[in-house]
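Incident log, structure service

09:12 report received: a user says their structure output differs between two submissions of the same chain.
09:20 pulled the input from the user's history:
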Amino acid sequence: MKTSAGLLMYRRVDGRLEVLLAHPGGPFFRNKDDGAWTLPKGEVDAGEEPLACALREFREETGIDPAGAPLVALGEIRQKGGKRVLAWAFEGAWNDDGAPPPSNTFEIEAPPRSGKLSTFPEIDKLSFFTLDEARKKLLSAQTELLDRLAAALDQPR
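09:34 re-ran on a clean worker, output below:
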């Protein structure tokens, strides 16, 4: 069973809690919005500590270095396919300049059965959402992390 680890960055704006979510790149997610977003995360390598993976993946996918930020443990969830996701949250800032995130890339055959490899970013968009908005945008299994964050920060769910 695969295990991923990630970070959920949050901020407070006018008394509201907002979280930074990532939209996956590639042709499969191109026209998907609600239910397609995720926290920045990646697969834990053999022998790697999950938190080290979460920090590395967050830096790689967002360009933001959370080093030294106090972390809130959000625990583990299981996604539909059985993948385990371990998550932590931290308060941070990000200035959206409209540029695409500095994400890693991957190659797949696109269009399918074309014999042509195409390169896509792992993450093509980052955006802050209120908790209510994030519940609509996130993969359904990950919405539990929002409730855990709200509870840890003593915020309304």
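09:41 both user submissions now match this output. Likely a transient worker issue. Closing.
09:42 reviewer note: The chain has one domain: 3-152. The chain has a mean pLDDT of 90.
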